[in-house]
Amino acid sequence: MLGAIIGDIVGSVYEFNNYKAKDFDPFFHPRAFFTDDTVCTVAVADALVNGIDPAIALRTWGRRYEKNGGWGARFAQWLGSDDEGPYNSYGNGAGMRVSPAGLLAESIDHAIRLSDHVTAVTHNHPQGMRGAAATSVAIHLARTGMAATAIRAEIVARFGYDLSMSVDEIRPWYRYNERALDTVPQALTCALEGTDYEDAIRNAISIGGDSDTVAAIAGGLAEALFGIPEGIAETGWGKLPDDMKPLLIALYARVQGPQEDRN
Predict the structure, then answer these.
(1) In sequence order, which ranges of 82-210 are alpha helices (DSSP H)?
(2) Cα R_g (the chain), whole angstroms
(3) Model confidence over 31-90: pLDDT tens digits?
(4) Contact by Cβ (8 Å): 57, 43
(5) Which domains does the chain have, with CATH numbers?
(6) CA 158/CA 102 separation, integer angstroms
(7) Burial class (CB in 10 A: 0-12, 13-18, 19+), 57
(8) How many CB atoms lie under 10 A from the CB of residue 208?
(9) In a designed cystine with 99, which of 77, 78, 159, 220 is the match (CB 3.0 to 4.6 A)?
(10) Distance (Å, rounded) from C-alpha 78 to C-alpha 55?
(11) Under a CB-based contact definition with an 8 Å cutoff, are residues 145 and 180 in contact?
């Protein structure tokens, strides 16, 4: 979960000012901040850890940080209503917030069930559901120790995504897109091709597009694959408000803590 949040923070300054290379410096830009992606990820953690209706959790956290900005127009409308149901979204918002489900899952089927539970309240279009489920399953598989090549094969077989292109092949043509179908495969590739956590995030920023969301999705998987280096984790933690931190602590207590950096 912290891996997804750090991806969001790092990508925040590049969402509308893409940087199509991996050599951006510093890793955390001075203006980097957590966006709606982090707020929604925390809400999903709250729903799963504390047994709260996902719609209530998303509205509670979303309204608390409404001025943070970055909300999609349709989600913002849903956020402002107390009784509006799902709106058939096929956007990437479900994939960027689902990392807690992958971390808590005990099996592939469980990863999908948890993902569906927190996704269907808004993104009930098949593509929105698929993007979140694929992300959740990939994170679960990485936590079991499955190698990146095997995770790639499982995601292709189970969800039908084309993961054949490398990061270098994606970068020249990739443009801003908020559809799950055109975000999740690329983001997962950035993590699966990474050599460590930082490299995965640099891959995600380098392809451009919806940078904070791409990096959030990639970051959630990269954390499960590699762990987060201590210095990066400390800096990311320091950029979060105090009311979010207890939820991260509670979630990691359920999954026996964030994985240590494996490198």
Answers:
(1) 93-97, 99-104, 108-119, 126-143, 148-159, 167-170, 184-192, 197-206
(2) 16
(3) 999 999 999 999 999 999 999 999 999 999 999 999 887 888 899 999 999 989 999 999
(4) yes
(5) 2-254 (1.10.4080.10)
(6) 16
(7) buried
(8) 24
(9) 220
(10) 10
(11) no
